[in-house]
Amino acid sequence: MGAIQIIAEIKWNNRDPVYIQVIRYFKTRIASGSLEAGQEIPSRRELAAMLKINPNTAQRAYKEMEEQGLIHTERNLPSRITTDRDVLAGVREELIQSALADFLDSIRPMDIPLEELLELVKRQYRGKGGAGHD
Amino acid sequence: MIEVMEVTKKYGRKKVLDSLSFTAEKGEITCLIGVNGTGKTTTLKAIAGLVPVSKGKILIDGEPYNKHIYEKLAFIPDAPIMLPRMKIKDVILFMRDFYPDWNALRAKDLFHFFKLNENDRIGDLSKGNMAKVNLLLGLSLDVDYVLMDEPFSGIDIFSREQIADVFASGLVENRGVLITTHEINDIEHLLDKAVLLGDGKVLRKFYTEDIRSSEGKSVVDIMREVYRQ
């Protein structure tokens, strides 16, 4: 039972490598805490079927995540999320930095005074507005 | 590996295939893309040994065409291949008795996967269900390569999704799959390799993940570049 439920509502972007998008999906879930340290994850084949992707792509995503130390696999056991706290904290940091960089890149050309921007962010962050982009 | 090496096929004076070269690997999904009349079906038939080529070579796992090739590959056309009055269950029994390579377990899995009705007659099936039956027949043979002609064409979106899901499931296993299509939308993330054909020639061939990594382009982007020239 321990394996995670994957909600396969990923909208694939055809211009980014699919394996990168799979890794991003895992990282987002690690950062948000919905995937926890040491948690069991689906096999490559199960993941491919859940996300409806090519099994080779699932394989590549897992291989890359192993190399990044995000997941590990002991011989015949199911793969698990790493228990290395530093790696997990790094994922969160990385995602926040990259989202922030995207945000700043698109807002900077508008030359909004920082105070006003911070005020807007504060006001909208908890509300429904402004969330999510593509 | 299927190796198509500088294959030319002429019907009379008309070159349908013009020095065509590409490979399709085991464990990968390779897609021949092109508008109607670019030689996609002829290519599949040539690989299956159903039409002789005028020039060039086709090797399957390093061997030229011989009678054992039938044990290595299955060709699934985009038309019904069974008699219209047969029920789906009769077709499955027929295949089981006729082909030593028939994998009854996988056939059963695919039958459930597609939610087919065993008492439906071939002649009464919708295009989508016919495509599913054809796919079931082809994938239930224990062969190394499956050639599928237009498995996604002219069928409803739900059948399309189900057929696409088969490629993501374990049911294809480690076989080499070579499909043709002119509709790439919503399946491109499933493909390993794309081979773009035009007038019987290979215009471009690439691994889809590579083109996304190196150029940030989708298969459709590349098709626009290639076919608009």
UniProtKB/TrEMBL annotation, chain A:
GO MF annotation terms: DNA binding; DNA-binding transcription factor activity
The entry's keywords: DNA-binding, Transcription, Transcription regulation
Protein name: HTH gntR-type domain-containing protein
Domain HTH gntR-type: 16-84
InterPro entries per UniProt: Tscrpt_reg_HTH_GntR, WH-like_DNA-bd_sf, WH_DNA-bd_sf
Short name of any one Pfam family annotated for the protein: GntR
Domain of life of the organism encoding this protein: Bacteria
TrEMBL record, chain B:
Any one Pfam family match given in the protein's UniProt record, by short name: ABC_tran
Domain ABC transporter: 2-224
Entry's Gene Ontology molecular function annotations: ATP binding; ATP hydrolysis activity
Keyword terms: ATP-binding, Nucleotide-binding, Transport
Superkingdom to which the source organism belongs: Bacteria
UniProt name for this protein: ABC transporter domain-containing protein
